[in-house]
Design a protein that fits this description.
Elements: H1 9-20, E1 41-45, E2 48-53, E3 63-69, E4 78-83, E5 89-91, E6 100-105, E7 112-118, E8 125-132, E9 139-144, E10 151-157, E11 163-171, E12 177-185, E13 188-189, E14 199-203, E15 207-212, H2 213-216, E16 225-233, E17 237-244, E18 248-252, E19 262-267, E20 271-279, E21 286-294, E22 297-299, E23 306-309, E24 314-320, E25 328-334, E26 344-353, E27 356-363, E28 371-377, E29 384-401, E30 411-417, E31 422-425, E32 438-457, E33 466-471, E34 477-481
């Protein structure tokens, strides 16, 4: 029998990159002589990262700021570029640790796709922030540009009268993506006619699509629904955009999960209305405890301590002004630890009172992990607030405020958060002498896990315009086996 040549780790890495399309990995060092045939995994920086940013607004008076950063210090060669479909570069970071920004006006601001390679790939982050001063879509919309994927959950979207909600789909690749969108309301799967349970969309290569939920199933007008976005082929970046007449507008990022325990970080201290929307995608009902994590520990909202979520149905819980002057995070956990059921969840948050109201969303998010970054923070008086929640043990994090896009020196601060509490840092750390937008990077030093969010507030005409973005692990490194006896296991 002819002996087959062994598959090298480089070949496995290339195959993995072809499958995921997200990152190429640095090959690990060889196993030391005399070592075991299967050594421990090594952490290696990614060599390529991909991000997509949806079209920011349909308003002719929209003003959009794009900001991008790769955290860390300079060293090594690398490139990064966010560009339009036609290939026009909008952002091109040149060096780790130094953010760059660009602006665009009106409804013609495009969706962007791009990649970072080499030294600029690990932790590459981009943010788009859009301000619309007047009109029924007025408000502040913020979104961290997303990594393409194949499965997204959006609890908290709506098809109700007075809401204009869209799912934005961006395909960064050279092949067509086929996308399914299903909606689940309080009675389960939404369908306009027998058999019509999903809408299928074709997103051409390197293009974007914008899907109106109110016209997707026009006979179903529901206040709160959960959208499930999956791809039958290809991958996309997916984000939801919501506008509510007389209240405001913002992006709703995908929820973390499904998981049996969730943290929804960053409810503003002055929230006047908070509504929880949850969905159980499995075959079992979920019974959840609802707790608010604040500076003094965990509290149970009076009369709102439990939520029952029927399998395959969207459930809601009106929490009112639950924070009562102190920023906090919502914690969801199984009422019976022996009957844990995975769920997804998000919060609809309103600040101000009519007619000076503004709408925002706080989805469940993953922990900070080793490192996470949110770009486009502002050093104006209390414009940027940071919320840190230690959902387990006491935790210490390092917060780095980068230089501004127009100058200044980075600032570093270590912050300790006690177990079970939420700590608000207002204003958030900012660069010394910084000008222009800057980035915040959080690293977990000890304890944890830590969930974090930043709130950006840019008031306009008495309206507390705001947007909340969560910090989640930037996946700047990946685990790669030091030696592989049977490399085919990596592709199973």
């Amino acid at each position: 029998m002819k002996q087959r040549a062994p598959l090298t780790l480089a070949a496995v890495t290339a195959a993995l990159a072809a499958v995921t399309g997200l990152a190429f990995l640095t090959a690990p060092a060889a196993t030391p002589a005399g070592g075991a045939g299967r050594a421990d995994a090594a952490r290696r920086p990614v060599e390529r990262s991909v991000l997509v940013c949806p079209e920011p607004s349909s308003s002719d008076i929209a003003e959009t700021t794009y900001t991008s950063l790769t955290p860390g210090k300079g060293g090594g060669a690398g490139t990064a570029r966010l560009a339009t479909r036609e290939g026009k570069a909008v952002l091109e970071p040149r060096e780790p640790g130094k953010p760059v920004s660009a602006t665009a006006s009106g409804a013609e601001a495009p969706g962007l796709t791009g990649a970072a390679e080499g030294a600029l790939a690990p932790g590459w982050t981009a943010q788009q922030t859009t301000k619309v001063a007047v009109g029924h879509t007025r408000g502040l919309l913020g979104l961290s540009c997303t990594v393409p994927g194949t499965d997204f959950w959006f609890p908290g979207v709506s098809t109700a009268k007075g809401r204009q909600d869209y799912i934005h789909l961006t395909n960064p690749d050279d092949t067509v993506a086929e996308v399914d969108i299903k909606l689940y309301g309080p009675d389960g799967l939404v369908k306009d006619k027998p058999g019509a349970v999903a809408a299928v969309f074709r997103v051409d290569a390197r293009s974007t699509a914008k899907v109106s939920l109110s016209t997707l199933f026009p006979d179903s007008r529901l206040t709160d629904v959960t959208a499930h976005v999956t791809t039958g082929s290809g991958r996309v970046g997916a984000s939801a955009q919501a506008a509510e007449d007389g209240v405001g507008t913002d992006w709703l990022p995908a929820s973390a999960g499904p998981a049996d325990t969730l943290v929804l970080p960053g409810i503003p201290a002055d929230a006047t209305s908070v509504r929880l929307v949850a969905f159980a995608p499995g075959e079992d009902d979920a019974d959840l405890t609802v707790r608010l994590s604040g500076p003094g520990g965990r509290l149970t909202p009076a009369g709102k301590e439990r939520l029952h979520v029927k399998a395959g149905m969207t459930a809601t819980l009106d929490l009112g002004d639950v924070t009562r002057g102190e920023a906090g995070s919502l914690l969801l956990a199984p009422a019976d630890p022996g009957k844990a059921v995975p769920v997804v969840a998000a919060l609809r948050v309103v600040r101000g009172t009519a007619p000076k109201q503004e709408l925002g969303f706080v989805p469940a998010s993953a922990p900070v992990g080793e490192r996470a970054t949110v770009a486009d923070n502002r050093a104006d008086d209390k414009a940027t607030a940071l919320t840190l929640t230690a959902s387990g043990a006491d935790a210490t994090v390092r917060v780095t405020a980068s230089a501004g896009t127009e100058g200044g020196q980075q600032a570093v601060q270590e912050i300790t958060v006690k177990a079970g509490t939420t700590r608000a840092v207002v204003p958030a750390p900012a660069p010394s002498g910084g000008k222009g937008p800057y980035a915040l990077t959080i690293e977990t030093l000890s304890g944890g896990p830590v969930h974090a969010a930043r709130t950006l507030t840019l008031p306009h005409d008495g309206i507390p315009m705001f947007t909340v973005q969560a910090f989640t692990d930037d996946r700047s490194t990946v685990s790669v086996p030091r030696a592989v006896e049977d490399p085919s296991i990596l592709l199973r």
